[in-house]
Predict the structure.
Amino acid sequence: VWDNARDIDLKSASDAVSWPYQVNTVDLIRFSDHFTKMVPPANAPREAIAGFALFRNSCMGCHGINGEGGHVASELNFPVNITEHHDDALLKKWILEPGSVRSGVLMPPLSKDMQDRPKAADDIIAYLKTMRSNKVKPKK
């Protein structure tokens, strides 16, 4: 992405005023090639694969797995996976309604528009459980 705000010719164009940035190139890369430490193993259970897709869409903006993903909230796999110190029932409650577990949390609940939210939470937990045997120390 390059900034065209200083380019006199582009700035004079009507569409450049409302959006001062232009895309120069787009690289297409598979998610699994970029976030290699976050991807579950090929032999992971079906629920864990589904949970990984949900985690990518709903959780990784804030949470990391093996140092990949978000850095706003806690790392969930290394050195101790969250499923190693919280049971499934508490994790499910946390994913579905974080405010019911701890007051004043910033974490939003799993989307209320999602179909079968309890199953989705179970799948995310299956992904997290799968990843506890796939720990990679994050780079600092």
In short: The beta strands are 2-3, 21-22, 64-65, 68-69.
